[in-house]
């Protein structure tokens, strides 16, 4: 991939984001990049959000958010710490959108049409896009660049420092499951941690046992017409729930809901994966905090619990079980990435977790990927490309993980290198540290943010001297 030409067209103030403590005023740019990857040398826009009002001179740093699988405005709204760091370090603040997500669609509305169009959606290409953008924003490299990211965005931040150390002075990789790959961590680790989050939400609660009891009941009800009618009436599904196999869709949806509740288990009300109350897992389990004699009672209580996720606004007319994700998350794009190079083995045991046992079966996974996208995954692609066992060869990378985050199992939790920092946040959910300050934040988060700012200053000073 090579940069052929560069055109920047300013579209002006397309987006104005509001937040409680900072008045975000995000300029939206449209940037045209050329890539050799396109046979006809076509260009396409990569969107990025930039604020340079705090910059004082030509050596002021750049705080660069490496966008992940969704609309970049969603991440800008949920990553207030980058603003805080930007203001304190008098930096240029940039949120760069990942290709194929949000408005950065290489082939417009045909980007997802077929493998010929979708094939340019890879993490390597996304990193190369960010590198091109940094070359453009910082051509003489006077500005030290610090990358930030959460989740897959955190993986990209660490990998930016790994692959482009001449462009990036350091990275904060928050809740980045860079080790969640084949044979690196056990496949049940995600669901094991997830279950423990539900187990500890309320002391001595039967919540987890009730969830375990739910599955055979749901399956049983789904197997008869009468049962399906009952479920339809109880849960108010948007689409007809009239086949035995609809249970599989419901189960898959609920698995995602459980994962999202644990990830967004923040100590205050937020709207990241869905509008949710403070401590949503505790709220959820609060509805399942007793034993039920009848299946119907269990189902009603479970529906009340589910409302915490699906209907916190009280405005949900019907339950859409086709996806647990908001539209601004690009779950289809992520599924494609998971079907090519981001193969993250997942399984359930039924004993270490509260789900129905299911082995990890790569052959079956591959077949499903081919059915869905006409591609087969490369099982060890990410391991080959980035390594996954140890990250001690890096420098100036902070890996942070909240122990309440199911993804922490695939994170970097130890290091033998002085140049790599591991931060463990016992009370943290998914990249809580990247969010803006909130008075409900646990003390560990406040101390950690102070530590980050001190470290960033050191990186910047070292670079500038
Ligand atoms: C940057 O953000 C600040 C605070 O929200 C705002 O006052 C300023 O106008 C913004 N600058 C640009 C260039 O958008
Ligand atoms: C890009 O394609 C156009 C025609 O589609 C051609 O005229 C031009 O020379 C090409 N540019 C490069 C650098 O290959
Ligand atoms: C895709 O965009 C083109 C051009 O704007 C438009 O004519 C077409 O209807 C769109 N197709 C779909 C499926 O949205
Ligand atoms: C399954 O449903 C039948 C009838 O609806 C009921 O008698 C039976 O107890 C149910 N079994 C379980 C495990 O819920
Ligand atoms: C389920 O309902 C839909 C829409 O009413 C209908 O098209 C479909 O044939 C039904 N399926 C079964 C198995 O009854
Ligand atoms: C969402 O909550 C409102 C208000 O309580 C209720 O009327 C509606 O039925 C709920 N939606 C679903 C899908 O349960």
TrEMBL record:
Biological process annotations from GO: proteolysis
Reactions the enzyme catalyzes: Cleavage of a -Pro-|-Xaa bond to release a C-terminal amino acid
Chief location: other
Keywords assigned by UniProt, alphabetized: Carboxypeptidase, Disulfide bond, Glycoprotein, Hydrolase, Lysosome, Protease, Signal, Zymogen
Record GO terms (molecular function): dipeptidyl-peptidase activity; serine-type carboxypeptidase activity
UniProt function note: Cleaves C-terminal amino acids linked to proline in peptides such as angiotensin II, III and des-Arg9-bradykinin. This cleavage occurs at acidic pH, but enzymatic activity is retained with some substrates at neutral pH.
Localization per Swiss-Prot or TrEMBL: Lysosome
Protein name: Lysosomal Pro-X carboxypeptidase
Entry keyword annotation includes Ion transport: no
């Amino acid at each position: 991939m090579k940069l052929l030409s560069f055109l920047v067209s300013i579209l002006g103030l397309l987006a104005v984001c509001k937040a409680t403590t900072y008045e975000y005023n995000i300029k939206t740019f449209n940037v045209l990049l050329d890539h050799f990857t396109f046979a006809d040398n076509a260009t396409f826009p990569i969107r990025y959000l930039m604020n340079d009002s705090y910059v004082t001179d030509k050596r002021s740093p750049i705080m660069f958010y490496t966008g992940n699988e969704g609309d970049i405005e969603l991440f800008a709204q949920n990553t207030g710490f980058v603003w805080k760091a930007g203001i304190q370090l008098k930096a240029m603040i940039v949120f760069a959108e990942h290709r194929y997500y949000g408005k950065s669609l290489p082939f417009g509305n045909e980007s997802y049409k077929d493998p010929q169009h979708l094939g340019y959606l890879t993490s390597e290409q996304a990193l190369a896009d960010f590198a091109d953008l940094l070359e453009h924003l910082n051509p003489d490299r006077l500005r030290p660049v610090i990358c930030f990211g959460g989740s897959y965005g955190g993986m990209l931040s660490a990998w930016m420092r790994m692959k482009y150390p001449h462009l990036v002075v350091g990275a904060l990789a928050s809740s980045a499951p860079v080790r969640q790959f084949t044979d690196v961590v056990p496949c049940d680790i995600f669901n094991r941690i997830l279950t423990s989050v539900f187990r500890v939400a309320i002391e001595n609660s039967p919540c987890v046992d009730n969830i375990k009891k739910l599955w055979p009941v749901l399956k049983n009800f789904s197997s008869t017409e009468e049962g399906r009618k009952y479920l339809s009436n109880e849960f108010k599904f948007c689409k007809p729930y009239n086949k035995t196999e609809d249970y599989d869709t419901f189960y898959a949806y609920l698995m995602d809901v459980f994962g999202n509740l644990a990830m967004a288990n923040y100590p205050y009300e937020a709207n990241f994966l869905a509008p949710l109350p403070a401590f949503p897992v505790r709220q959820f389990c609060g509805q399942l905090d007793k034993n039920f004699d009848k299946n119907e009672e269990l189902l009603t209580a479970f529906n009340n619990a589910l409302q915490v996720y699906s209907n916190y606004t009280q405005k949900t007319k019907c339950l859409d079980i086709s996806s647990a994700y908001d539209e601004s998350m690009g779950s289809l794009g992520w599924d494609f990435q998971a079907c090519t190079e981001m193969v993250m083995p997942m399984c359930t045991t039924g004993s270490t977790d509260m789900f129905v046992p299911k082995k990890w079966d790569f052959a079956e996974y591959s077949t499903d990927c081919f059915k869905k996208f006409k591609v087969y995954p490369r099982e060890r692609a990410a391991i080959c490309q980035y390594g996954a066992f140890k990250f001690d060869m890096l420098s100036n990378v902070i890996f942070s993980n909240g122990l309440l985050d199911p993804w922490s199992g695939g994170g970097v939790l130890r290091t033998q290198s002085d140049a790599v920092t591991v931060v463990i946040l016992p009370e943290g959910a998914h990249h809580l540290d990247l969010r803006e300050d909130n008075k409900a934040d646990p003390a560990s988060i406040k101390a950690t943010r102070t530590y980050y700012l001190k470290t960033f200053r050191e990186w910047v000073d070292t670079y500038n001297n």
